[in-house]
Amino acid sequence: MKIDVTAIGAALVDLVAVVDRFPEIDDEVYVPKLQVKSGGSAANFAVACAKLGLKSAFIGKLGRDAFGEKLIQDFKNEQVNIEGIVFSDEIGTGVCYAAVSGADRKLYAFSGAANILEPKDIKREIIISSKIIHLASLKNIAPLEKAAEIVKNFPTQVSLNPGALIADQGLKEIEHLISLTDIYISPQDELIKIMEVHSLEDALEMLFDIGPKIAAITLGSNGSLISDKKNKFKIPPYKVKPLDTTGAGDAFSAGFITGILNNQNLENCGKMGNATAAIKIQHIGAREGLPTKKILNKFIKNH
Questions:
Q1: pLDDT band at residue 257, thresholds of 50, 70 and 90?
Q2: Domain ranges, ordered by start, for the chain
């Protein structure tokens, strides 16, 4: 079994409400459009990588229900390897309720079965056959640590995109997980929060002291900053009109990791990440608009 990248974390169903404004307390807002989409940070990443031509796999836990069946079918449609998926008979598939207004969004996540993934559920043969394992946004970090520890003695690299569910636990709880990481990816505010400092420069210095060799930091509308401790590259954003930023971080991660696996230099990896996210945010839903490698290359060339 040869796999380019295996994502480990949550696969959820997104209920996306597109609204003109967000409600106040005891307020009500009309929803002109409600969509049921497949989501979850790790799952989005796995699909985005498959779209970009990588051999992609997903490890996570679902409920035995209609939402779980939808997620499985969508993985199959995108040719994502699902041999690492396990099921819960007690807890249902996770659901994320998302309200979207222009470039802004508010999320309410019920992790469901995703968060009871156990270390014993990690399929060793899958992750040691992967060039990179990507760990993403799961409150229960025990299986993520287990996966990173398993591949420590193999050529497999570890990528981490914490997300709020991990970042909110604080550095003391997640430092060991970060120490097992080769590639760290997150928004700048998230990294600053984890490190409990006031500047991105200080946060990066602490991050590299803990262990990662590469950091890819997204800066919102200001693009991204890519660093390997010795070098820093500020990558400007691609100017597009955002329709929905849901899944933008996962798209960036997929573009960036695809660059790494295609032996691009760090600056080009950052451009690929920015471009993948820019293409995606012009569509509603975490996975709508995710580009193929051909579309990505054309977008970068034209911009």
A1: very high
A2: 3-10+42-86+118-302
Q: What is the mean pLDDT of residues 270-292?
A: 94
Is the model's pTM score more than 0.85? yes
- Reference 41, options 117, 89, 91, 109; nearest CA is 109
Instruction: Give alpha helix (H) positions in the chain.
Output: 41-51, 66-77, 124-127, 142-150, 163-167, 171-179, 188-195, 200-210, 248-261, 266-280, 293-302
Superfamily of domain 3-10+42-86+118-302: Ribokinase (3.40.1190.20)
Q: Judge whether residue 65 has pLDDT over 80.
A: yes
Q: Please say whether the beta carbons of 185 and 159 come within 8 A.
A: yes
- Nearest in space to 191 (alpha carbons), one of 206, 181, 180: 206
The residue count for the chain = 303
Question: Using the 8-state DSSP alphabet, how is residue 35 labeled?
Answer: E
What CA–CA distance (Å, rounded) separates 203 from 207? 6
